[in-house]
Amino acid sequence: TGLGLSVVHGIVTRFNGAVTTQTSRGKGSCFTLYFPKHTAATELRKKRASPIYRGEARILFVDDEPTLAELGKQMLKKLGYTVTATSSPIEALKLYRKRPDGYDLVITDMTMPELHGTHLALKLKKINPLIPIILATGLNNLNSSEHPNPESIDAVLPKPIEISILSQTVSRILSV
């Protein structure tokens, strides 16, 4: 879908890094990623500043990139949740229709080719208006989205997803 490089750029800049590109016609492109030097003291400060919340709930996780769907599943499982992950919003809708009482929360990517995350959220809310839905997005400003749908979204999760922010967001939404 052409979003891979923007996700890489987001990850690199979040860690105060940089991306450079060199392109030669007929030979290809070379992307170089630069990251600041890692120190144990910096990591320790970050861990103290960002608490990790654990919980027990059944979560449906949707991201059209299979690697990100699996990563989201693994992070949530590490936090104690039971997770069903899929890389297809159509499949997610089928799973939810089959067992609407089988999930306590849905986390969905926003930009997906088969069905936009906000449209998926609307369809899920028609089945169960009380299901909490978290929208994961790399966009900084949802107002600029072609498909804004704030009434069906309970929280927004910035991408790339950090486990501490994921844990805090899920805990906050589930405790409402």
Describe this entry's structure for a reader.
The chain has 176 residues and is of the alpha/beta class. Helix content is 38%, strand content 22%. The protein contains six helices and seven strands; from the N terminus they run αββαβαβαβαββα. It has helices at 4-14, 40-49, 66-78, 89-98, 117-127, 163-174, and strands at residues 18-24, 28-34, 58-62, 82-86, 105-109, 133-137, 155-158. The strands form two sheets. The protein has a five-stranded parallel sheet, sandwiched between helices. A hairpin with a 3-residue loop joins strand 1 (18-24) and strand 2 (28-34). It is globular, with a radius of gyration of 18 Å. The two termini are 35 Å apart. Mean pLDDT is 86; it is low at 143-148.
Strand content: 15-25%
Cα-atom radius of gyration: 18 Å
Q: How many runs of DSSP E, i.e. beta strands?
A: 7
Total helical segments: 6
Largest sheet: 5 strands, parallel
- Outline the low-pLDDT stretches: 143-148
* Helix fraction bin: 25-40%
Strand order, largest beta sheet: 4-3-5-6-7
Structural class: alpha/beta
Gross morphology: globular
What is the rounded distance between the termini? 35 Å
User: How much is the average pLDDT?
Assistant: 86
Which series of helices and strands comes N to C? HEEHEHEHEHEEH
Topology:
Elements lengths: L3 H11 L3 E7 L3 E7 L5 H10 L8 E5 L3 H13 L3 E5 L2 H10 L6 E5 L7 H11 L5 E5 L17 E4 L4 H12 L2
Parallel strand pairs: 3-4, 3-5, 5-6, 6-7
Antiparallel strand pairs: 1-2
Helix pairs in contact: 4-5
